[in-house]
Amino acid sequence: MAQRPLRIGFLTPEYPTEAYSGGIGSYVHQVAHSLVQLGHSASVLLCVSSGEGVAWDGPIPIYRLALPEVASRLPRPLGKRSGLIFARSLASVAEKLSLDLLEVPEFGGISAFLSLVKRPGLRVIVRLHICSAICRSLDHNEPSSTTGRLRTAVQDWLERRAIETADSVTAYSSAIVHLTQRLLRLTRDDFHVVLNPVNDLFFSRTTVEPVCSEAVVLLVARLEWRKGPDLVIRALPAIVERHPNVRFCLAGGDTKTGPGGTSMLAYLSTLVPEQSRARVEFAGHLTQDQLLKKYHQARVCVFPSRDGFGLVPAEAMACGKPIVVSDVMGSRDVITDGETGLVARGDDPASLACAVDRLLSDTLLREKIGAAAQQFAREHFHGSVVAKSMVDVYRVVLSGT
Hints:
There is one protein chain. This protein has helices at residues 23-37, 68-71, 80-96, 114-117, 132-138, 146-165, 174-184, 201-204, 229-242, 264-271, 288-297, 311-318, 329-334, 349-361, 363-380, 383-399, and strands spanning 7-12, 41-48, 53-57, 60-66, 101-105, 123-128, 168-171, 191-193, 215-220, 246-251, 280-282, 300-303, 323-326, 342-344. By secondary structure, the protein is of the alpha/beta class. The strands form two sheets. The chain has an eight-stranded mixed β-sheet, with helices on both faces. Strands 11-10-9-12-13-14 form a six-stranded parallel β-sheet, with helices on both faces. Strand 7 (168-171), helix 7 (174-184) and strand 8 (191-193) form a beta-alpha-beta unit. Helix 1 (23-37) crosses helix 16 (383-399) and helix 12 (311-318) crosses helix 15 (363-380).
């Protein structure tokens, strides 16, 4: 007997715009579209500080939730009163849309009180992306003031409550599960690991290397400490020594995660040797078309992240590019060293430089790893594959087993 199509809603504080930056919004966009292609119904509930109404992303309706007194504070911690107001609004929208399931991110604890007000038939699934405690820990950004410590304690409590009261919890890697369990001191351990999906456009672009005298090494990530952009800059001199025509591109917006909470872009700029400044491009935010062009131009893509394996290395793999990742839990779960990518020691610029040099020096190795990476991406990151795995989780949750 055929199972009936599901009605799924996705709550998100962001959604892809002209400035493409991956993250929660891009995950929601791809999963929603893939679910519709499988015959299910998907809606997006977009938190905004003002304005309302419905927009459309192809077949996906985007309901703008105008909650000025609450949404304008996201992702900062919500108090109990504003949190309950927010939860009632979400429950009301879910009721009007007759949703079977509502998937929400853990960040900010925005669904912390939903279990108190939702109708019994609505199932809530929390998706672990990266909680506030992980961000603070990896960026060395723990507050020093009493007020700051109180605020982060409230935020952690809200995120913990959102996770503990959800009907189910999914995550894109086991590493994120372990880190979240440890830092938020979770009691539940029934997590489902489902990888992040990659937009179909990344699979459609040609994988032939561009004919260019300059070898481009590309990092796509916010300029944030936990993403490891400093490691790329520190590895630069050793790479330039072996490959004088190499060029580096760091694509991503600036953050205040440099030393002492300063601009990371400004900090990275001070690390670039004077003689190499012309060889380093800080590209900032990119549109999706611009990002695809950068991937196409790159000879090697590097992701020395301190927080594991995210969406952008999967995009590079889908484009058929050889990648270098750090030896951290999330990456070890995905990358087989020497087959689907190269693995460098964590927080080690010399090891990163060695891995990049190895790929730049060996055309056959680049082609072999790039082809294997793309095949792996098709089998594990394609939207249809991920969506089918998510549907399996959704049906288990709805059945109560």
